[in-house]
Design a protein that fits this description.
single chain, alpha+beta, 3 helices, 2 strands, globular
């Protein structure tokens, strides 16, 4: 687990790559909320062979599939 503290005006997603860098590998589920449904984060997870469990934002033109049961739990 990693923790990075940023200013209140900085979105959490800016730290995603730093947080995932040492923890993501093949078969790891990355569970995040809709705020992290950004194309570059999804691609980073998939590039590192992780399993992306992020629900799609409502305004996303194409809703992505994700493991709803894992996200719910």
């Amino acid at each position: 687990m990693g923790i990075f503290i940023t200013g209140g005006n900085i979105h959490d997603s800016t730290q995603a790559e730093k947080l995932l860098h040492d923890t993501i590998h093949e078969g790891v589920y990355v569970i995040e909320d809709k705020a992290f449904d950004l194309e570059w984060i999804v691609k980073y997870i998939e590039k590192n062979k992780g399993i992306c469990v992020i629900s799609s934002r409502k305004n996303r033109k194409e809703q992505r599939e994700y493991h709803k049961d894992i996200y719910k739990n």
